[in-house]
Amino acid sequence: MQELSPSQIAQRLDLLTELSVTLGKSHDTDTLLEYILQLAKRMTNADGGTLYRPSDDRRALDFHILINDTLGIHQGGPGGEPIRAPAIPLFDAAGAPNLSAVAAYAAHSGESVNVADVYQPQAEGFNFSGMLNFDRQRQYHSKSILTVPMRDHEGELTGVLQLVNARAPQTDAEIDANEGATIIAFNQTDQRFIEALAAQASVALTHQRLIAQLEELLESLVNLINIGIDEKSPYTGRHCQFVPELTMRLAEAVHATVTGPLADFRMTDADRKELWMAGLLHDCGKITTPVHVVDKATKLETIFDRIALVDTRYEVLERDATIAALEQKLALATSNTATPAALADIDQALAAQQQTLRAERAFLRAANVGGEGMAAADQQRVRDIGARIWTDMDGAQRQFLDADEVLNLSIQYGTLTADERKIINNHISVTVRMLEALPWPRHLRNVPEYAGGHHERMDGKGYPRGLTGDQMSVQARLMAIADIFEALTACDRPYKKGKMLSESIDILGKFALNGHIDPQLFDIFIRSKVYLEFAQQHVDPRQIDAVDESRIPGYAP
After folding, report:
1. Cβ-based neighbour number of residue 246 at 10 Å
2. For 377-420, what is each residue's pLDDT tens digit?
3. Cys staple from 204: which of 23, 50, 63, 292, with CB 3.0 to 4.6 Å?
């Protein structure tokens, strides 16, 4: 067994150093694994090599990468053909460890296996039928193999590295004569170097796996928050799912732009992950917002819609009017003055009173729904109705509508009072506080700014910080457009109807003109047809009408 010269050992140490540098730079697991296998082959001058990874259920070893120089085979890895070899079971049918397959043995025992010649009797302790069948099918001759397990710091199996047919160094004359390389055994120095390489590789793989698991855990926690929001308000939950999607669509359109003021905007994969995370969390503060405010469908709704109480009062007033009319008729009858004309007058007065009450009731029910605007005369009518005195069930006289009911029923726009709007708007302040309280890693450090800026305006009139456009990142400005467009077109909100696509675009165009949203991003939003692609996938088809882009405010086709 030929030992290595000092220069060869120095060369291998250089290769291990090269591996250490590469392990610190590489973030792609498949590329890293292929590099490890190729480096192991170079280090030992092996003709072939295989890297196995544990299956998801950890009951088998899957072929991950398979390379053989003589046969020109390269399967698996970033540039290889699909793997065709079957997995090696780690356990037999009875559940006992499989110790006959050399790769499985190394996986179970944690020991390296170095076999000089798989065809010799001393190799009979293992079942090499699969390897020998491989030889017969491809007219190859496997001889020496070195199998090294890869384990992490906790002793858990991360893979198995197997090298086949160490080749003796050839002289220039042998190479010129095109003589085949002599197959030799892997020596002890080979084994120790490959074990060192496998240990380094396993640490790097474990490091990458832990990073991936932490990122997966973080995204799962984000989804946990969104599940909580969704359970509290399915309407907000849907919004939290669609805004990040629309944000990424617009971001990719901006990324692809090659002319104009935003031509320099580019995203890496890390930037995309950061923006996606911010989109998922952009409304996380709503987990603290009272559900009766978030989903307030009518003006009088709190935990329930108080219009039912107003209905009951009108029923009482109608009943009181009927009783009063009957009492008048009884008084006439008792005094023998119940003439047909007198009775008719009472009925007519009762009918007029009932008609007035029913008209007022219908008016208040309509006012309770809310809308784009309530006339000042209608607001005054609410106050006048509220000032009427009635007798409640306890015999006490009180105003027909209390102060809070008058305040809510006279809301000019929508269904929220000024105080309730402050509660709604506070969700973004809570979002910012929640996100800034987290120790974000460097590649996600902008998540609070992106997520917390989607209610800011270009003219500085937004909230919570009143930032102007030049104080906001492109990511925050494009998320603002996604947030507004999704809210305009959503048809499942209890407090509003989904707007037609053309109307939604018209509103956004006006926002681009009045300093609400970024006009340059709005231009890309329309020009790239992001709005239409999103609508075709997520907006009710009945809302998708034709959009005349030549008439969109703030947009020049």
Report:
1. 26
2. 998 999 999 888 888 777 788 888 888 888 888 888 877 777 77
3. 23
